Amino acid sequence: MNSPTAQAPHPVSGGPAPLEAKDLRKHFMSGDGSELRILQGVDLRVGPGEVVAIVGASGVGKSTLLHLLGALDRPTAGEVLVGGTSFIDMDQEARAEVRNRHVGFVFQFHHLLRDFTALENVAFPCRIGGMGEKQASDRARALLESVGVAGREDHLPTQLSGGEQQRVAVARALANEPLVLLADEPSGNLDEATSRDLHELLFGLREENGTSMVLVTHNLDLADQADRILELRDGALHNDVNSGIHDMGEKEGEELGG
Ligand SMILES: Nc1ncnc2c1ncn2[C@@H]1O[C@H](COP(=O)(O)OP(=O)(O)O)[C@@H](O)[C@H]1O
Ligand SMILES: [Mg+2]
């Protein structure tokens, strides 16, 4: 398991992988005009129902990578394929459509629309995905129930606890039955017990729906439950997780994979 690339342990047979990244590169211009080469050739293949955790020191480019995987941003070079479809030649509108249909995103801070109820926040992407009003509302209600926040449909985000906000964000991400769920430190803002509940929810979803996931996390409890842990360092993903662990550990002395 010490190869420098990050391929699925069981090659996917019969059909394209839910998510694939090929030689992804992302460079930014820094304030002084020099070039920051944040991603320098990321390869990743996520199989059906597979959960991959990505760890790495702060500032190494984890959020940047997740944004590229979810087509929220474009790479400097390389390509991302969702369900075998490459984003490379798509205009912004086409990318947004594929993203809405096939990719669910959960952020560290819920990013719910604050003037809309929990139900409306979840129904919104269903509507964009083409459902009628009644269908979208029914789907949103069912999703909210499945993530354990039944009875909170009419609450605004500010009227929900942090854990409930993230559950609603997960329900929203699942609106259109995505091929892959991308989560950027989903429990980074939650206390330990609430984090555990959220992790249980995420892995329950995988059991029930076979949703593939890429989870960026500092949380060792979450990373440990994944099928694979990859470390982003020096601009690439590595199977051997060997640095930055002390930055990532939330509890002193705890080790990844241990
Ligand atoms: N739009 C941007 N322009 C310039 N630099 C950026 C931009 N976005 C991110 N960066 C830089 O890229 C690096 C990686 O950021 P990020 O992906 O947020 O790291 P992580 O999520 O691993 O903490 C950081 O040094 C950050 O300052
Ligand atoms: Mg980040």
Descriptors:
single chain, 258 residues, alpha/beta, Rossmann fold, 6-stranded mixed beta sheet, 4-stranded antiparallel beta sheet, 23% strand, disordered N terminus, disordered C terminus, binds adenosine-5'-diphosphate, binds magnesium ion
Overall description:
With 258 residues, the protein is α/β, with parallel strands linked by helices. The protein has a single domain (19-113, 163-248), classed as Rossmann fold, CATH 3.40.50.300. The chain contains eight helices and ten strands. It has helices at 62-69, 92-102, 118-128, 133-146, 162-173, 192-209, 220-225, 245-248, and strands at residues 19-29, 35-46, 51-55, 77-82, 85-86, 103-106, 180-184, 212-216, 228-233, 236-238. The strands form two sheets. Strands 6-7-8-3-9-10 form a six-stranded mixed sheet. A four-stranded antiparallel sheet has the order 2-1-4-5, with helices on one face. A hairpin with a 5-residue loop joins strand 1 and strand 2. Helix 3 packs parallel to helix 5, helix 4 crosses helix 5 (162-173) and helix 5 (162-173) packs parallel to helix 6 (192-209). It is globular. The two termini are 16 Å apart. 41% of the residues are buried. Residues 28, 36, 38, 56, 58-64 line the site of adenosine-5'-diphosphate (ADP).
State the major sheet. 6 strands, mixed
Strand portion, in percent?
A: 15-25%
Q: What is the CATH topology?
A: Rossmann fold
- Morphology: globular
CATH superfamily membership, which one? Answer: P-loop containing nucleotide triphosphate hydrolases
Q: How many structural units, i.e. domains?
A: 1
Q: Under the CATH scheme, which architecture would be assigned?
A: 3-Layer(aba) Sandwich
* Number of extended strands: 10
Query: What is the typical, i.e. mean, pLDDT?
Result: 88
- Which CATH class is shown? Alpha Beta
> With helices defined by DSSP (H or I, 4 residues minimum), what is the helix count?
8
Query: Rg to the nearest angstrom?
Result: 18 Å
**Small molecules in complex:** adenosine-5'-diphosphate, magnesium ion
- Give me the side-by-side strand order of the main sheet: 6-7-8-3-9-10
Percentage of residues assigned to helices: 25-40%
Oligomer designation: single chain
